Amino acid sequence: MRAYLLASAYVVAVGGVSPSAAQTEPASSAEQLSPSAPQDADAPSGQNEIVVTATRREERIQDVPVSVTAFQQEELTQKGIVGFEGIARETPGVVLNRPTQNFNNFTARGIATNGYNANLQSSVAVYMDELPISTIGNTTVVDPNLFDVERVEFLRGPQGTLFGSGSLSGAMRILTKSPDLNDFNTSVLVDLGLTGSNSFRQRYNAMLNIPVVTDKLAVRAVGFYRNEEGYLDNVGTGVHNSNTLKDYGGRALALWKPTDRLSIRLLGSYENSDPADSSLTSPSLGREKRVSDQPDRFTGKQTILNATLEYQADFATLTSSSTYSDFDQRFWLDLAGTFPAGAYAGAPIAFGLDANAYDKVFVQETRLASSLDGPLQFVVGGFYLHRRRDVDYFYRSSLPFLAARGLTGLPDQYYQKQYTHQISKELAGFGELTYRFSDKFWVTGGMRYGRTSAQGFTEEGGYLASYNIPPAPGFGGLDLNYFSLALGNVRNVAFNRFTPYAAVEGVKASGTKPSWKASVSYKPTQSLTTYATFSTGFRAPIVNAFAGRPSLVDPNDITIPYGAESDDLKSYEVGAKARFLNGLLTINAAAYLIDWSNIQAQANRVSDSVQFATNIGAAQSKGFEVEMGIIPAKDVFIGFNAAYNDAKITKLSVEEAAISGAVLGHRLSAPRLQGSMFLSYGFDLGRGTKGTLAVNAQYVGSYNSSFPNTPGLPNVPLSTFGETDEYVNTNVSFGMKRGPISAQLYIENVFDDHSVIYIHPEAFLVSRFGTLRPRTIGIRLGYGL
């Protein structure tokens, strides 16, 4: 039936268009074929050019002395990119560690100790307009809908001067599209697909733009809904296609321009992303299988409100952006892998964590960017962030599991409930100054200086259910002494004591540190821009939850340290951006050397495996990236990008190796080689109809899941250590377009590759492997795109 619906949709599209429509209309300019394609170097301003705001000013991408890849809506639509995963595969030097929907960690240029970043700030900052939505590694981040966006920019290398401490190795910006003050328009995109033999995918998107007062006031509304049936079977819960995703929401924007100098933009957006289960698998169970006692849930509901005022003075543009965000998330997972398999009759112990988090964030940024044509250009501004995160930790077992072993007395399945919150603040001033000695030579210097602070609190209330039996041996620092009963040591015992938690105020972590940037640019011809850049980066300090706690197993073992200091990163980059043959050939290339010291890392105490954050040694990352666009003939475009990276631990003490599991000379968690290629061929089908045939392939090399040894157990290999698979993911499409109507048949993962692209580094998850989505065949129907 679902295959019939897909076929029917295509027949209707073909009949309505006669003979139908393409996703994007082929044209002789590379810009029309692909936003990352080359442009005519001599074209008038505003024609066939990609303009980015990576430097907080509008500049042509070919003139920006930064490694940046930009995606405009046409390219996102043509390639079927709807979220972070597609962006990562099309950006050189970047991988996305994505265990499941809404659980995303980018790695850029090899700066990562593992793909999980537990309790560590992400090394790539992610912005939704002016709001930073990235956070620490073991929390959810909504994978935002990318329909009707103005542009997505991915900046590689430290971007601390303009985007803060979270941009240690890069920053990704999602820029929503503003209302059009003059034209009424609408667009619709429907995507229907079939994954495997019985997993139906539905995606519906619509936009409406209304100019209320021409040239003065307009509103724009976007709505979207996704219902994508899963493709994994959970043998623990017995659910077929368990990892089904439902995602819906929208945004409304208003733009008021009372004068030529002043504009006010208001935005409200909401997205509810609700995967029914995780997408992590257990290959030992067979293809597309996973196991957990209850569904693993990583859900998010995010509301964003923003007001941006822009005033054009005679010499500069003043921008004030105020953003409030409310983000509710669930982080529910089965932790059965924490305990040895076969503890009793080969069955796992029912043990899990249901954590609910509630973020309330306010961000204010005010900046002044020069607009004069003279030799001196500047951006100067201030940034303030206040985030309160409430996290409720509910550790659970299973009432049937407990009842079978004579454990009674719990009011529900939770034996421990703890309520906490954390207050984070950042206040910073930043600026960049560019001086042009001539049209061919200019220098840029930048600095950001700010103060960050974080403090955690345990709230009064909650409890730990316990009894007077000593803990079972071998479970270390876990407050799980009742599991000695679960193992059969004692039976028919009730939880006779509920110890309440008292309010505790944690130690406040704070720090001040500057970020620096210096760049020299030389443009010998209109077709070639070269640059050399030095920049620095760091992450905010971290306070350990168990700071000052000694080991109860071995009093001579280390006391849990206060926390981790800011790490320190220095980046050296040289690059060139060239356009030849009147824009028919574009080549952007960069080479870099990064020194990363005092690395923030996750560690374990040797005697009891209590986890904490600390600093270790140093690493070095070096490599190069290249992007190329070629138009060999009319209506033909070839896009290519590649990246090589070599990132290794270069300095490590014996003590640091023991607590972190790191090894001197070990490669960090990033592929050595990756790249992608895109081929588009356009042709005329007659009667005003254009056709497009496109092939898109991405290659990603294998890389380490984590450090190779067990943290806290010197020289003991980590049982969960592994390497992801080397893989090639190929997509093909055939589209037709006539007027505003379009249709595109596509096949994603043509060869049904089942490669492992993510390995969770910690043992508490039984299903720890992320794989490519199986082959998906579908059709996209569009109007007004």
TrEMBL record:
Coiled-coil annotated spans: none
GO term, biological process aspect, one: iron ion transport
Keywords linked to the UniProt accession: Cell outer membrane, Ion transport, Iron, Iron transport, Membrane, Receptor, Signal, TonB box, Transmembrane, Transmembrane beta strand, Transport
SUPFAM superfamilies attached to this UniProt entry: Porins
Localization (cell): Cell outer membrane
Pfam families: Plug, TonB_dep_Rec_b-barrel
GO cellular component: cell outer membrane
Topology in membrane: Multi-pass membrane protein
Name of the molecule in the record: Outer membrane receptor protein involved in Fe transport
Region described as Disordered: spans on this chain: 21-46, 272-296
Family statement drawn from the similarity comment of this UniProt entry: Belongs to the TonB-dependent receptor family.
Polar residues bias (residue ranges): 23-37, 272-284
Extent of the signal sequence: 1-22
Skewed-composition ranges (Basic and acidic residues): 286-296
